[in-house]
Amino acid sequence: MTSTQPLAALNEIPAYLQTLLDYEKQAVQHLAPDVWGYLSGGAMREISVGQNLSQFERIQLIPRHLNDLTQGNTSLELFGQHYPHPIFLAPIGHQQLFHPQGEAATTLAAEVMQSNYVLSTFTNTAMDQLNPHNPYKWFQLYWQGSREKSYPLIGQAEQYGFKAIVITVDAPHVGIRDRERQLAFHLPNDMQHPHTPTHISFPDVSPSEHKLFNGLMKVSPKWDDIEWLVKNTQLPVLLKGVLHPADAKKAIELGVQGLIISNHGGRILDTSISPLTALEIIKDHLPADIPLLYDGGIRRGTDVFKALALGASAVLIGRPYIYGLATAGALGVAHVIRTLLEEFEVTMALMGTATLKEINRDYIYRS
Amino acid sequence: MTSTQPLAALNEIPAYLQTLLDYEKQAVQHLAPDVWGYLSGGAMREISVGQNLSQFERIQLIPRHLNDLTQGNTSLELFGQHYPHPIFLAPIGHQQLFHPQGEAATTLAAEVMQSNYVLSTFTNTAMDQLNPHNPYKWFQLYWQGSREKSYPLIGQAEQYGFKAIVITVDAPHVGIRDRERQLAFHLPNDMQHPHTPTHISFPDVSPSEHKLFNGLMKVSPKWDDIEWLVKNTQLPVLLKGVLHPADAKKAIELGVQGLIISNHGGRILDTSISPLTALEIIKDHLPADIPLLYDGGIRRGTDVFKALALGASAVLIGRPYIYGLATAGALGVAHVIRTLLEEFEVTMALMGTATLKEINRDYIYRS
Amino acid sequence: MTSTQPLAALNEIPAYLQTLLDYEKQAVQHLAPDVWGYLSGGAMREISVGQNLSQFERIQLIPRHLNDLTQGNTSLELFGQHYPHPIFLAPIGHQQLFHPQGEAATTLAAEVMQSNYVLSTFTNTAMDQLNPHNPYKWFQLYWQGSREKSYPLIGQAEQYGFKAIVITVDAPHVGIRDRERQLAFHLPNDMQHPHTPTHISFPDVSPSEHKLFNGLMKVSPKWDDIEWLVKNTQLPVLLKGVLHPADAKKAIELGVQGLIISNHGGRILDTSISPLTALEIIKDHLPADIPLLYDGGIRRGTDVFKALALGASAVLIGRPYIYGLATAGALGVAHVIRTLLEEFEVTMALMGTATLKEINRDYIYRS
Amino acid sequence: MTSTQPLAALNEIPAYLQTLLDYEKQAVQHLAPDVWGYLSGGAMREISVGQNLSQFERIQLIPRHLNDLTQGNTSLELFGQHYPHPIFLAPIGHQQLFHPQGEAATTLAAEVMQSNYVLSTFTNTAMDQLNPHNPYKWFQLYWQGSREKSYPLIGQAEQYGFKAIVITVDAPHVGIRDRERQLAFHLPNDMQHPHTPTHISFPDVSPSEHKLFNGLMKVSPKWDDIEWLVKNTQLPVLLKGVLHPADAKKAIELGVQGLIISNHGGRILDTSISPLTALEIIKDHLPADIPLLYDGGIRRGTDVFKALALGASAVLIGRPYIYGLATAGALGVAHVIRTLLEEFEVTMALMGTATLKEINRDYIYRS
To answer: Would residue D23 count as lying in a domain?
Structure first.
């Protein structure tokens, strides 16, 4: 990595940016090395970061041919809401790290592309700044250490027209990220988060108590908090980060309405189960009508198809849209979404599937 | 890749061209970089291009010894026609891209080598230019958007002595080819295709309609077109590109007489099922007497043997004969075929098999 | 490897030493090439050295979420003795090779970190030099060629407060180490071992006898020596190096109280069974209450978790703490232990497990 | 590869030659590039050459401990003959290519090391030049095109004290070796083979006949030739190159007394079944008392142990002893054998096995 200044964001999309992989190669030039390390890196030796990508290669596609696709479309329905396509934007905080306009640019692009956007608790742009009439937005909740401190966020999400609450459950402790620690990355001191303090304050721990178990673990959400959350909002609640089928079943029993199968982009726990594998296992453990969303490693239209074939109703992309944001702001985000959506549509055509409902495991071969 | 001019085609075969892999290394020197990218590349990240080759390494041979092979030969019969050997030439269009004589050179070489040649709809040489007395030729049909526009091609194929119709069904949309797009490859504006317009015109799409599903998909062939085709030609009809056993069964029920198991050289859908795997699965789903042909990744005589052992009656080679064409025109194509055929004959001898009919899965071990 | 002098050991821990892998990269700079080869190398081509590390990647973690961990801790009980955490130090001899203070530094660090230390027979520091009041210490016995010569060591271990005897059974002959032999590594002539001669004297062999089988094998321990050992000490006896389930069962029948599953860091027999695999197999062959300890390739907190999930009560680290010793003496050893322990605690939190007893195979997925 | 002259053979063994792998790195310096390519290379892309080595890594060892090995030895009995150890020398022809003394040096080393030597039909040294009193020698027969031409060789083998006839059955046609062909290797014109013409003359083929099937295949041995051979010699007959269990069973039914499981060092048929796999399969198909010998990829004492554990009575090494021959003549061959034998003895000790008969699959784990 050179010591030169990062390039400024572009104002138009060069012709050579044709795939999400191209955007990754481009974005590294627009970010400082420590921010790039924070964005692209993950837990420990980044084995899970790599496997989130490589797992898709082991899943092979068996196309069907000669079907009539002239009435085809990519739409789906979730919790009574129509979505034009299944490519959603995963919650990512602190987006002003990547582009001066941060989440404001992302929300604009998502709205134009009718891509459902899951706004992070750690957003630099407040919920009330988003278009209240755009129905394609959900709110991601990081537990604020108590029900009292978490409740106002839920209320605002309802007030400003968000259509679901996604609570992240896989990060009671930050991941141990070798690369990020070597780069000594830290958030800018003056960064503003309208909805949360940057660091949740920990409870006091006596000298005889364990700093981690008796301290930080006290302020992480518990199953009864999930039960409380479900009862205290009109919105559907989804858990993000579930990987164990027993957790999946328990969540549904408590009234959770959907799950996002994710290993947090490999940023929290290295060598976790591949989320595609977890998706398939969990799908087999739940009633067929429980919506599962998939998050992790999506880079191509074929990846979207595979996740849907293995049980997902929709997918979330994370780093790729930030690569678009760093490269060209809202324009870059929109182009990333459009690129992936067009690849997915072509994949549907080549697979002989006219609607999302037709996509299932019969189209999959495992090598 | 250097910016120097490509080498002119050779007039004789240098001694160092001894295998099809040697021809690949040679051909790159005779073609412009964008044409080389178009020829050697494939869909997306070219994972399927690579797997078409590597899949053969997982299939191991168990030779038999001490049998009497003195009456051995490589001949086969298909649809009542005798073929001296099972190495056919796959349909590849626009061959003037690779050598000024294009398909004219290929047809000459194929005839000399008694190799059955499947002429592409996108040929630069018209059907009536081929030797009408050479029985080793089939015609590949790209659907022309309607029965009316497709019918004349079928009529000509019958008129000029082609022995079968091969309709390609796996490419209702062109593959998304990263490398080719980066190289901005396009066909020369003045290229002549005697049997088809270079681009089939799409139906008009209203603003509310989906450009892909309501547009392009309207002009792709459907199952009832296959049924119509079978009923409207005296020639046997084969489907090329079938990978799913359910499609294979349906095709046979509709009167299709043979299948070419292929993933289009990895050029259409990346990470598709390996065609050798599909061959074996489909073989198990069909009556034993339905001819299956295999296309994809054949480079060595051992590869031919493996495809036959897993259920193929014959194999098609694609890029390798174009490597021969680019290197040395008709002479190169003929030498490529001869090289592969001799390797296959030696493989038969080393495997202890005297005829194609003896070759079966008993000679195979999977590692 | 350069010919420059090795760096002197550090007096403080630089900020960039954040993981055990960092210590490996650092330690090579503090040791002469032949000592580094001796320390980091292993038997023959070092395939087992590599697999001891890579085996952990095939074991994936399935985290649980939202459990209440506020009463969590890392303690365990073994043979009636309480241990604050399950990270033990494996027996390694000749530690003055790596730092002038040798085992004296290691014992200090182990005591500070409350890490159970298994002192090698080949220690450069005598047993009576260790703190007699520190309960976290075991003694490793290399058989001294006879019961008579071995007995005094057992007596001293009891006298100086060691809590268990670990007898190493997997090294009746030194490993054939290609790298070490090429480097012509040998112990310094003047090195002092207070408890053993550097080389056990072999019995005389007549010309007609086999030097290995009739010579060296005579002085290696036999099953009846183990039986004798168990009967002649009040301390629990553990066998180190067991990999075959039949040996594991026989040992328990003879009164051995625990096993250390180990392939000696890949230093003795190349291409041995991966010790994680052996751990799981042996766990299935023994009563559940027999303590199994795991040794081999532990580098991350996730590795500790995996070994425990597959059946270990505690783990031993070897080379990593020597990397700490070579880098910064007692300070380095302590920091290595602390680093690994903190990673393990975070892993427990991320896995949703509050105590060691909760950790089992339900948290594991094999890819 | 440089254009400098190959080094002359050494007169003593340098200290750095410690393993068979060291000899490979050394030998390349003592041979001309084309001879090195002929010796080290194999069929086509040399996939089988590589797999003959890598297959051993997938086989893991599970050692036993604490057994009494003081009566251990490495001897075996085959066809009523005692052999001090199970490391035999495979038949390799034309050894004057590698050292001026050729087979004369090899036979001397084999005799000193009591290693059973299988002399090739293509030897440059006649059978009568070997020590008639050395019982550790077998004769390898290449079929001479007819019974009449082959019979004299059998007679001489009996006359000069050879203890078995090994007939090679896997090479009715020479392998297609890409590397060797690129190097244009050929035998020196003036090379003397006392027992065979360099090229067996082929029968005349009429223009309508197939050169391979109707020509060369006529002069290759058939099953009834094997039957004839068994009946026309007092010596035990072994087939070399058998890989298919049906061939193995047929051979035994016809009176063949042993088999050498081999893929000819990967020199004949690329991507053949790994010979270790074939050994195990064939062992399961035959009565337990039929001796199977293993040939292919043995480089370490652990490899010898693995082959024996999977069913071999003894193993043959090929290229490694030629590496010794090229490096230092008879001295090099002897040192290669001694090195491998010592590694095997240490492996037996570390595995807890006192005799060859104890070595079986219970000591093996497959990863």
So the answer is: yes
Domain assignment present for residue D179? The answer is yes
Instruction: Give tens-digit pLDDT for C336-363.
Output: 999 999 999 999 999 999 999 999 999 9
Residues of B with CB under 8 A from a CB of A: 44-45, 47, 169-173, 175-176, 178, 181-182, 210, 212-214, 216-218, 220-223, 225-226, 239, 241-244, 246-247, 268-274, 277-278
Q: Are D44 and D177 in contact (CB under 8 A)?
A: yes
Reported as half-sphere exposure (CB side, CA atoms, 13 A), residue D257 has a value of 15
| Interface present between D and C (3 or more CB pairs within 8 Å) | yes
Q: What is the largest CA-CA distance in chain A?
A: 71
Any idea what the Cα angle at residue A270 is, between residues A266 and A275, rounded to 5°?
Answer: 50
- Out of A99, A193, A195, A264, pick the active-site residue: A264
Would you say residue A102 lies in a domain? yes
**Interchain pair D71, C226: CB under 8 A:** no
Measure the CA–CA gap between A252 and A256, rounded to whole angstroms: 5
Q: Count other C-beta atoms under 10 Å from residue B135's C-beta.
A: 15
What gap in Å lies between CA A43 and CA A266, rounded to an integer? 6
CA atoms of C51 and C263, how far apart (whole Å): 11
What burial class does residue A170 get, using C-beta atoms within 10 Å of its C-beta: 0-12 exposed, 13-18 middle, 19+ buried?
buried
The CATH number covering residue C97 comes to 3.20.20.70
**Chains near C (3 or more Cβ pairs under 8 Å):** A, D
Secondary structure of A62-111 in the HEC alphabet? CCCCCCCCCCCCCCEEECCEEECCCEEECCCCCHHHCCCCHHHHHHHHHH
CA distance B128 to B149: 19
Instruction: Report the alpha-carbon distance of residue B157 to residue C206 in Å, rounded.
Output: 90
* Residue C219 within a domain: no
CB–CB of A61/B269 below 8 Å?
A: yes
- For chain B, percent of residues with pLDDT exceeding 90: 92
The answer on pLDDT for B1 being more than 70 is no
- What is the tens place of the pLDDT at every residue in D229-283? 999 999 999 999 999 999 999 999 999 999 999 999 999 999 999 999 999 999 9
Structural domain boundaries enclosing D300: 5-65+75-185+225-232+253-366
Structural domains in chain D (count): 1
C1 neighbors C33 (Cβ within 8 angstroms): yes
Report angle CA B270, B273, B277 to the nearest 5 degrees. 150
Q: Are the beta carbons of B247 and A64 separated by less than 8 Å?
A: yes
Give the C-alpha distances (Å, rounded to integers) separating D256 from A240, D29, D90, D261: 68, 41, 19, 14
**Residues D202/D219, Cβ–Cβ less than 8 Å:** yes
Which of B62, B64, B70 comes nearest D218 by C-beta? B70
Q: Per the CB < 8 Å rule, is C63 touching A223?
A: no
Q: What is the pLDDT of residues D92-148, one digit of tens each?
A: 999 999 999 999 999 999 999 999 999 999 999 999 999 999 999 999 999 999 999
Catalytic residue ranges of B: 264
3 state DSSP class of D290:
coil
Give me the DSSP letters along D9-65.
PPSS--TT--SHHHHHHHHGGGS-HHHHHHHH--STT-HHHHHHHHHHHHEEE----
Q: Minimal Cα–Cα distance from B186 to chain A, Å?
A: 15
Residue type, A238: L
> Chain A contacts of C62, Cβ < 8 Å?
243-244, 272-273, 278
Q: Which DSSP helix (H) or strand (E) runs through A322? A: helix A319-351
Do the Cβ atoms of B244 and A64 come within 8 Å?
Answer: yes
Tell me the angle at which helices D47-58 and D275-285 cross, rounded to the nearest 10 degrees.
Answer: 60
Report the residue count for chain B: 367
For C296-310, the pLDDT digits (tens) are: 999 999 999 999 999
How many angstroms separate the CA of residue C233 from the nearest CA in chain D? Answer: 19
